[in-house]
Fold this protein.
Amino acid sequence: MSRPEIPELERLEALIGRFGAHARVEVLARVGHGGARLPIYGLALGAEDPSAPVFAVTGGVHGLERIGTEVVLAWLHTLAELLEWDRVLADVLARTRVVAVPLVNPWGFALGTRGNARGVDLMRNAPPAADGSGSWLVGGHRISPRLPWYMGERDAPMEPEAEALVRFVEREVLDASVAIAIDCHSGFGLTDRIWFPYARTRRPFPLLPEAYALKHLLDATLPNHVYRFEPQSLSYTVRGDLWDHLYDMRAARPAEGAFLPLTLEMGSWLWVKKNPRQALSLLGGFNPIKPHRLRRTLRRHLPLFDLLFRATASGPSWFPRDGERERLATEAFALWYG
Ligand SMILES: [Zn+2]
């Protein structure tokens, strides 16, 4: 079987050519199905020092949420152009790393499914944590790969796509002094949400003061932004979330550092509301279909990516000071968990 056509994968490969020597590119895995193999690409740009600040962008974990990959590619396109002339960017990249896995689940794209070719939901596929639980069904289950949100078999190794992402993030991100990741999804609600951990439990996570400080930075710097910034667990809880898993791995390391893995959950019901007929198609439930709405979505998130990149590079400057953490934690708790 020849390789299936995936327009987003082809655009990613063209973009890799565009980056040339600016990017270190790896094939993290070649995932097989039906006699063909599809690559998962990892890109790294800028500082090679493992402890340098890292901004990570990922998308395409869920095969139906193609807009996530599009948004990542749109930002990478801007970055590739800026690298040609922008000395400010060059200075920042000399001491900061950008890493990207724009299309984590190529078979989901090829087959038009949320999960991978084996029907596993990659964002429910991390090893189980001791605490927490998932919302019924949507939070992960082991009933059947024919139902969405299937976690895979008990005690099975992680799926190759999940494994590839975890290994890459482990190596490129987890030693960073400051790291922010944004994983781009779509499909929940009417607003664009930015989620922070945990996904598995309503218990606050240890970097609550930092998450609250980042929300303040966003509100103050982009006062007209469109996002609702909150813990994922306010919407639903999920077992096997890869970012909970990676956060736990970071927290278990002895070296000091802050890792804020965020999820951008674009509110696709807005696109459906404005164009109800698109709800009749599977992809229409998760992606802007009309060209003008796609363009609007692609430019909508560029200021967010720019802010998060700057916040990563400038890490400690906006972090809560020791004397402030307790007050910020109290305020954050009242806002999100009270
Ligand atoms: Zn998703």
